[in-house]
Amino acid sequence: MEQSNLDLPGTATGTMVVTEPLNFWGGQRVKPRQQANAEPVFEPATGRVLCQMFPCGSEEVDEAIKSAHSAYLKWSKMAGMERARIMLEAARIIREKRDKIAKLEVINNGKSITEAVVDIDVAWQCIEYYAGMAATLAGQHVQLPGGAFAYTRREALGVCVGIGAFNYPFQIAAWKSAPALACGNAMVFKPSPMTPVTAVLLAEIYKEAGVPEGLFCVVQGGADTGSLLCHHPGVAKVSFTGSVPTGKKVMEMSAKSVKHVTLELGGKSPLLIFKDCELENAVKGALMANFLTQGQVCCNGTRVYVQREIMPQFLEEVVKRTKVIPVGDPLLDDTRMGALISKPQLDKVLAYVNQAKKEGARVLCGGDPFVPSDPKLKGGYFMSPCVLDNCRDDMTCVKEEIFGPVMSVLPFDTEEEVIQRANNSPFGLASGVFTRDISRAHRVAENLQAGTCFINNYNISPVEVPFGGYKMSGFGRENGQVTIEYYSQLKTVVVEMGDVDSLF
Ligand SMILES: NC(=O)c1ccc[n+]([C@@H]2O[C@H](COP(=O)([O-])OP(=O)(O)OC[C@H]3O[C@@H](n4cnc5c(N)ncnc54)[C@H](O)[C@@H]3O)[C@@H](O)[C@H]2O)c1
Ligand SMILES: C[N+](C)(C)CCCC=O
To answer: Which of 219, 334, 391, 471 could disulfide-link to 428, CB 3.0 to 4.6 Å?
Structure first.
């Protein structure tokens, strides 16, 4: 069996066992203090145990936060240009190790290598982008009467906590740490207990690039460890990515000590396809909106509203293309859909398809467990991508986030009607519209209640543009310039140049 040494060449599906410690603080990997409560971590493509995840307890969380705090004291005093240089070096190292990190991500997460490589590219781009912003952080100078003046300083918050979901393990760690570090903060990151393997690589890379020891720490664990982080008095901010129910708990816990909070939560995003669209692009957009990462994407456009006149052509084309998506070994270059994250997640998604059938939906393709011919993949968590027709707005598959490769297609007649139906959801993460009518495109974008609207494309998230939700999909933003606001605070300094004009 191969170990997870990144320098090992030729790792293949079904061969890796990870034995090194996955915690990181004080500038090194840290062995778990106790072996109790170990949870097996599975390789989704095979169902094999990849490693054990040992959750950190209160003493370990405390050590990590102390380590981060001492690094913060040094890092926050450095000039933006000095921080930028180190962050650029981290981005360079990620670029250099991209293929190896991507492989490990695939083995732990189950997504295709084609997607994982893009995820790692987005990670280094994010660090590079915020490195560019680090030296631009500045305050204002305000002239006051009598020669007095004030100025503002944009200051770091302190130790920030990042809590990640399982679907983009390395990318989420980068999306959170890059703006945090650019602003002078330290970060303690907790990955999902199902994907504990790659965040520690980011910690090693930051260290190699030259950050002070402890600046980016990794603690492993699930809800209990997450809860220790949210309650910890040494933490200034929690940036959370995950489901709505967990997000609510994170907010509640963080409120006890008035921590800053960013919530990147779930969605059930609408994609509106008008009859005047370029149909082939709309079909491609619908596939991109539903089937990346086996459908386990927060901003997926899983409610696909198609104008009635073009429904037959749309369905024919979307089903034809869905049926030929190559599902299988995620480490092979030709694979476009790998395995879902876990057996319970696969069972949950299949149950949603069954429920949809009971409620009157018609399965046009997929929705079944998929067993690849390669014997080593027999225990993997694969399913065939599914298109559901005959859907109504009141069906469970249309209302709830499924987090699997299931597209629900619904007909509509008018723009006004479809906007009202699209907005009739507690979520508001993303949305999309396909039309050739430029006025309609922008009118629809204005009226959809969502943090992002894609016009004539879907799931494009360059790091330069803000990403985040409306309504129950959360608040705060990741990426883009605005995220600096969420990782810093403004101090006003008022300077008297004359005598004090006392009222007393
Ligand atoms: N908006 C976004 O940017 C975004 C991105 C990715 C995923 N998501 C959402 O994440 C969900 C899927 O991810 P998941 O299944 O990993 O989500 P989840 O809510 O189950 O877990 C997310 C993280 O929260 C931790 N956690 C669980 N209970 C906790 C508690 N009580 N206190 C603190 N932390 C706790 C988990 O260990 C994990 O690290 C979906 O709803 C998806 O839409 C959102
Ligand atoms: C990179 N995507 C595809 C926009 C996904 C962002 C993270 C959501 O789960």
So the answer is: 471
Residue 396's φ and ψ, nearest 5 degrees, are -60, -40
Q: Tell me how far apart the alpha carbons of residues 122 and 117 are, in angstroms, rounded to a whole number.
A: 9
Please confirm, yes or no, whether 417 is among the known catalytic residues: no
CATH 3.40.605.10 domain locations along the chain: 23-266+476-490
Active-site pick, 204, 264, 317, 415: 264
CB 430: neighbour CB atoms within 10 A?
30
Q: How many helices (H) and strands (E) does the chain have?
A: 14, 22
Cβ of 479 closer than 6 Å to ligand 2, yes or no, is: no
Q: Whose CA is nearest to atom 1 of ligand 2?
A: 461
**CB atoms near residue 442 (< 10 Å):** 13
d(CA 224, CA 236): 19
Question: Is 270-455 a CATH 3.40.5.10 domain?
Answer: no
Q: Which CATH number fits domain 23-266+476-490: 2.40.320.10, 3.40.605.10, 3.10.20.600, 3.30.70.330?
A: 3.40.605.10
**Pocket lining: 168 vs ligand 2, CB cutoff 6 Å:** yes
DSSP 241: E
Give this prediction's pTM: 0.97
**pLDDT, one tens digit for every residue, the chain (504 residues):** 445 545 454 579 999 999 999 999 999 999 999 888 999 999 999 999 999 999 999 999 999 999 999 999 999 999 999 999 999 999 999 999 999 999 999 999 999 999 999 999 999 999 999 999 999 999 999 999 999 999 999 999 999 999 999 999 999 999 999 999 999 999 999 999 999 999 999 999 999 999 999 999 999 999 999 999 999 999 999 999 999 999 999 999 999 999 999 999 999 999 999 999 999 999 999 999 999 999 999 999 999 999 999 999 999 999 999 999 999 999 999 999 999 999 999 999 999 999 999 999 999 999 999 999 999 999 999 999 999 999 999 999 999 999 999 999 999 999 999 999 999 999 999 999 999 999 999 999 999 999 999 999 999 999 999 999 999 999 999 999 999 999 999 999 999 999 999 999
Say what the ipTM of the complex is. Answer: 0.97
